[in-house]
Fold this protein.
Amino acid sequence: MVFFLVKKTVLIGLILLAVLIVGGIGGVFLERYVVPRLAALPQFSSLGFFNKATEHVTVINKTEQVVIREDDTVEKIVSQPATSVVNIVALPGKNTAALGNPATLGAAADEVKTTTGVLLTNDGLVVTYSELPFDSESTKYSILLYDGSIHEATYVGRDSLTNLSFFRVNDASNTPSIALANSDDARVGKKLIAIGNTFAEYQNRLSVDILRNVNRIFNLSGKTVASSEKWEGVFEMNLDKPEAFVGGPVIGFNGEMVGIVGDLLINNQEESFLIPSNTVRESFSRAIDGTLEKRATLGVYYLPITKALALGRGLSRDRGALIYSRSGSTGLAIIADSPGLRAGLLAGDIISSVNGTEVNLDNSLPELLSRYDKGDAIELTIIRQGQEKKITVNL
């Protein structure tokens, strides 16, 4: 009986405590929020109770303006790779046509020309793009670095496959260098920043866009047909004044170089594109090894076969390289006295593989040939009039 009374008393006490707590909170809420707002209404403002309750209460409507400042992210991204961008200046000589826009450096505009380049190594190896060869005999070259210093440069050579040319800063000492991305990982939509430097003073120019297309059948021959001696496969992006960026790097938002800006005159129009960084890396290796002049040649003009081309021409394969001239003449499809002609290749042949590696959009004919040097012998698998044949070619 005693236990029951104690239990009942405790329960009543807890209920009263709960009522007090809830009532207290409710009272505060009513006093602070409900009563002042009711007193502000016309139908309650005349009542003395509400006037008394709100004598010492002030309702404040506070509005704050919050300013969110966006970081200068592009500036931060390019801060390091931009130090590897250089300005190549060609002093008066026989041929400076290979360089980009002329800049006045205390001389006539037709005498001094500049273009953008980028440092690939800490010992001063510079790469740039040029459709035309540089004059290595009578023209002198200087390079402006990011710190404002001017250095004499030596022309190393040009890769005819990629149109990439190389210079070396003569007195280089621990120069900045750019990091190369794996361009095979690049996907359409990737954010890109192009850096150009073609002004009379060292001054970088930026253009931001996305990777808009991976054009696997674009050939650097600049013709309607592809050449086995010119690189096939480029990236495409939109550039503000593309001519100001030729030879300059294009980087991703991680600061690594995805490609180098190039351009070609096609049908009297300048077309810009990006040479992928993996292609730059291979060409750069040849520049280091001194094997730029040892590139193998085959000497054929062709059409890269796609599914659409195969359907349109009724071809038996949707991959490969179709040796081609508009007239169907072998003499126009294959260069005279070239390795391809000597090996017996004909217009209309489809080159399906090189030394057992299939020719397709991922492994173009020029890319497969670039793995070999002059003097090497290769085996081509061709399709001629529906029949497969093996042909040995001495490059």
